[in-house]
Amino acid sequence: MTATAAPAAAATESSSAPRWTRPSRRTVVAVLVVATVAAYLSVRTAGAADGDDAWAFRFFGGVRDWVDDNRDTSPVFLYGVNYVRLAVVVLVDAVQGLLYGLGWAGLVAAVGALTAVLAGWRLAIGAVAGFLFLGVLGLWEQSVDTLVLTLSAVLLSVLIGVPVGVLAARVPAVGALLRPLLDVMQIMPTFAYLAPLALLFSIGEPAAVIATLIYAVPVTIRITALGIEEVSPTTVEAATALGSTRWQLLGKVRLPMARPTIVLAVNQTIMMALSMVVVTALIDAPGLGTNIVQALERVNVGVAFDAGVAIVVLAIVLDRVTTRAAGRRPRLPYLLGTVAGVAVLALLGLRSEFPQGWHFSFAGGVNEITRWVEFHLYDVTEALKNGISAGLLDPLENVLVTTPWWLFVLVVLVFGSLVGGWRSGVIAALAAAGVAGLGLWQHAMQTLATVLVATVVTMAFGVLLGVLCARHDRFASGLRPLLDGAQTMPSFVYLLPAVALFGASRFTAIVAAVIYAVPPVVRLVERGVRDVPPTVVEAALSAGSTPRQLLWKVQLPMARGGLLLAVNQGIVMVLAMVVVGGLVGAGALGYDVVAGFAQREDFGKGMAAGCAIVLLGVLLDRLTQGLHSAKGRSA
């Protein structure tokens, strides 16, 4: 054999020898699924009920006792909490004095004049009509109270959020430190921090404003930081070359160029604050939320609908004004003239009440429709409720409840690491272990089952409607007002029709959660499908793809990032709404949180349930974000 033939023979032998091939991801997942099922069948438990004396319950109960005993003596309250509460009270009183001092005529005039200066005369007419409609609904005082709390919270959010957002954008270490904190603040369901805030600041307006601040300020910080980061580097370099100092760069370059984004931050902060202010009615905050809570107690859909419409009108007016203001620069003479005109009208309408003769209500008609639906569709709604409960919800709940906590944590760790990387898997597993450590495993798994079922239904409707919107512009135009109204309507309002149709049950919470979460999912799916490059779509059509093939083989695969983001947002919103469902018999963690509000002896358990909800939110958020990051890596 020649020297050249030997290597050739060796290569032939090596090529014919069997080689170890790396298993595909699908094979690994399939093996892990089979192993998980086998492990579950081997070690499943009887699903014992949660106890009433877990360490977490005692700990949080002890915290409450300490606060009650030291409220008037501890320096934490004397020189900290009490001063914060006093500052918030002063702010709320100032805003309330201003709005009520104008009288109804002066306030309507002020809204119209400021809208004309900031957004133009056409929107001013709509703003005036909107505020007059609040009075016509018979909800003038409640609407003004809601506006007072919203403006107070937004003012604090902007004063805190804009500087912090600028700092986060300019100092990477600050941004990295804030990111997990903002994630938790946004994931945390609103119910989870109402109880501790009511404990620290007492029920009423101060606790309501601070709770709204916690809910809204992450949006202010994130969008402000984004606006500062997006300022053109060439512009900054040019200003630096001309000798600008850091403060001059910030005040004369970065902030002016980021102005549209900062106005967007204010806009989104207002929307978030308005939705949260309604929920704070549970801690005795005044406003339209009180009407909705009372209507919920009496199952009066019509009264809740009136209050919901009032909130939608407020949201539309504030949204349109702040959105249009981003592109306009008001002139000082116009502003001075506006202030003078409003002052005159305020003197004319001082202390006057909205005319009682101008009154209209949707309540009667809405209640009639509700009664008709209850009477004629009872068999359909009962069959739907029982079918989904028995065929989907109960089996899933049984599997989760009877799974040992350590096996659940292990499965979360393995699958989370597989699909999203070890960081996502570890964080999700730690969150699952934290839920187990709180002593509420059964209730947590019951809540998780409800969330998963509601998310599946939400995604089914959201993907269907989102694809239709992306492919049919007329359908999108017709659906957009409904989506706007649904996103603006307070979450409590959705509980009323759900209770009327399905009674107080877990399924009621699922229905309300689906209605609440579908609008953002539809928007994200539509955006993802529309963002598929037109050149790719044209290439697929020219290759002979049918509309069905175009959707399933081109648009949906390329919109995977948007779909995963839709799943992430849908889960977070469903989780928040399922907890609210504790008010209408959903049970599990939602009931524990609500009971913690109502009964002193259940405070510790309610706080532990709030922590469990946060940990479930972190778990689900990390897993879905891990899927999105895995998609980015594979791309």
Question: What does this protein structure show overall?
Answer:
The protein contains 29 helices and no strands. It is mainly α and 635 residues long. It has helices at 5-16, 25-43, 55-70, 75-101, 103-119, 121-136, 140-170, 172-187, 191-201, 205-229, 233-241, 246-257, 259-279, 288-298, 301-325, 332-348, 363-376, 378-401, 405-420, 422-437, 441-471, 473-488, 491-502, 506-530, 534-542, 547-558, 560-580, 588-598, 603-634. Helix 8 crosses helix 10 (205-229) and helix 20 (422-437) runs antiparallel to helix 29 (603-634). Residues 1-20 have low confidence and may be disordered.
How is this fold's topology laid out?
Layout: H1 5-16, H2 25-43, H3 55-70, H4 75-101, H5 103-119, H6 121-136, H7 140-170, H8 172-187, H9 191-201, H10 205-229, H11 233-241, H12 246-257, H13 259-279, H14 288-298, H15 301-325, H16 332-348, H17 363-376, H18 378-401, H19 405-420, H20 422-437, H21 441-471, H22 473-488, H23 491-502, H24 506-530, H25 534-542, H26 547-558, H27 560-580, H28 588-598, H29 603-634
Helix pairs in contact: 2-19, 3-29, 4-7, 4-10, 5-6, 5-16, 6-15, 7-8, 7-10, 7-13, 7-14, 8-10, 9-10, 9-29, 10-13, 11-12, 13-15, 14-15, 14-23, 15-17, 15-23, 18-21, 19-20, 19-29, 20-29, 21-22, 21-24, 21-27, 22-24, 23-24, 24-27, 25-26, 27-29, 28-29
Structural category: mainly alpha
Amount of helix: over 70%
Task: Give the ordered list of helices and strands.
Answer: HHHHHHHHHHHHHHHHHHHHHHHHHHHHH
The residue-averaged pLDDT reads 81
Q: Cα-atom Rg, whole angstroms?
A: 28 Å
Shape: globular
How big a fraction of the residues is strand? Answer: under 5%
Spans where pLDDT lies below 50 across 5 or more residues:
1-20
Task: Tell how many strands the DSSP assignment holds.
Answer: 0
- Calculate the terminal CA-CA distance, rounded to whole Å: 49 Å
